[in-house]
Design a protein that fits this description.
This protein is α/β, with parallel strands linked by helices and 440 residues long. Helices cover 38% and strands 21% of the residues. The protein has a six-stranded mixed sheet, with helices on both faces. Strands 8, 9, 14, 16 and 17 form a five-stranded mixed sheet that branches. A hairpin with an 8-residue loop joins strand 16 and strand 17. Helix 4 crosses helix 11. The chain is elongated, with a radius of gyration of 23 Å. The chain starts with a helix and ends with a helix.
Length: 440
């Protein structure tokens, strides 16, 4: 391992206790998307102390700051390349989780608390070699990765507070990625059975279209004269049965998942339900399948409502793009994993059935989102816990920091090669892409 990598790993090891302590603090203080005020303030304080400068707020609670490299342009470039390291601020809703907020049900049941500790660890490591890289390192804490509370976020959008429901999407719209050339982060992996840990590079995830659906019927007394009403809940239930009947038409290769929930089933039990609300994701492994399946789902819902005389409003929302990681950056990360964790199993290209707004970042510019084990229990459940502090907090910080060195040391040659080979897209092109998926 070269001198810079030894230096950065030594700095992370020297701050091991502080990194783990901050991860535990974040886990004990979960907050939901676009409301992570306490977490954001704590991250800002820690990053500032670690040497990150020019920290600005973005996307309501998000943060973006810098550790600059050598002065002057990188070799062969008009300006130094930039690499963003990302950690996510928000929690999910898991009321039974032992660290759940008793008022909101928020809990870090997806590993984001560990990401923030890793972000701090990378900052501590990079700060120890400040001025020795031929490029700039940006540190970002992003809000609202979990695509939940759709109705509340739609209200925020109507009020002009946000334009996109996902935090990284909002950051794209606000221009927070305009001066970024490539990005990276890690995600928790659970229940690896082998010894030495598990690292997955190059994995893909599903994209999705979000759906906010309102069924409107007609109220009547459910006991006295139900025949005078029009039951919107029946239309919602019939719609779910129709969606289930579509499943045999989904191609296995598209990895389609459609999963609705009813968020309001009526007002009172003695009144025929006339106001019923549903949220739904239409997931798939590629944008064309997302679009095709979404059209089928919409047709099924409208047909069921027509049959029962129920009015329906379907609001399709830009969800997340399928994760498509950059293979060149991923190889650097994987090589570092083999050196720093020789006992770990390092694999490439495993599908993750969930979705992440890091997928949208991978559409925009070269990025990676590998997973590292060290967690137990199922993701998004009250069972999720830290199983190994070294794997959950310390190793990922070293892997991200050493990959930054690979990109930005030695004249930032690797970063410039990747930047040339994978031209970034613009935020305007991003908005146009989603318009093409949602049209019709």
């Amino acid at each position: 391992m070269d001198k810079l990598k030894q230096q950065v790993c030594a700095a992370i090891d020297a701050n091991r206790d502080a990194i783990i302590e901050f991860g535990k603090w974040c886990r004990a203080n979960p907050e939901l998307g676009y409301a992570e005020y306490k977490t954001s303030a704590a991250v800002k304080e820690k990053l500032t102390a670690a040497g990150v400068k020019d920290i600005q707020n973005v996307a309501i609670t998000g943060l973006k700051g810098w550790i600059r490299g050598k002065s002057g342009a990188a070799i062969g470039a008009s300006s130094a390349p930039s690499v963003m390291v990302i950690g996510e601020l928000d929690a999910v809703i898991s009321p039974q989780h032992p660290y759940a907020n008793p008022e909101t049900g928020a809990a870090h049941a997806c590993g984001h608390a560990a990401q923030l500790a890793v972000l701090l660890g990378v900052a501590m490591g990079v700060s120890a070699m400040a001025g020795q890289l031929d490029g700039d390192v940006c540190f970002a804490a992003t809000p609202a990765e979990e695509f939940i509370q759709i109705g509340e976020r739609q209200a925020m959008r109507r009020d002009g507070k946000i334009d996109w429901l996902g935090g990284k999407q909002q950051m794209i719209a606000e221009g927070a990625f305009d001066d970024i050339d490539m990005a990276m982060m890690i995600h928790a992996e659970t229940d690896f059975a082998g010894d030495g840990g598990h690292v997955v590079t190059g994995g893909s995830s599903l994209g999705f279209i979000g759906k906010d659906i309102r069924f409107t019927g007609k109220e009547a007394h459910a006991g006295v004269a139900p025949w005078l009403g029009i039951n919107a809940l029946n239309a919602a239930n019939l719609s779910m049965q129709a969606i289930n009947s579509l499943r045999e038409t989904f191609r296995d290769t598209d990895s389609v998942r459609v999963h609705p929930i009813i968020t309001k089933g009526g007002d009172i039990v003695s009144t025929v339900p006339a106001d019923v609300k549903m949220e739904c994701f239409v997931r798939a492994g590629n944008p064309q399948a997302m679009k095709e399946v979404n059209a089928k789902v919409n047709r099924a819902i409208r047909g069921c409502c027509y049959a029962l005389g129920v009015e329906v409003e379907i609001n399709d929302i830009a969800g997340y793009y399928p994760l498509q990681q950059n293979p060149d950056i991923g190889k650097l990360f994987g090589d570092n994993a083999r050196k720093l964790a020789p006992g770990a199993l390092v694999e490439d290209g495993i599908l993750f059935g969930g979705s992440t707004d890091m997928g949208d970042v991978t559409w925009l510019l070269p990025s990676i989102h590998p997973t590292v084990s060290g967690f137990s229990g199922a993701l998004h459940s009250f069972h999720l816990d830290i199983a190994d502090d070294e794997l959950a907090y310390i190793l990922p910080a070293k892997l991200l920091a050493t990959t930054v060195i690979d990109l930005l040391a030695n004249g930032a040659t690797r970063a410039m090669e990747i930047k040339k080979a994978y031209p970034r897209r613009t935020k305007q092109e991003y908005a146009e892409f989603w318009s093409s998926i949602l049209e019709g």
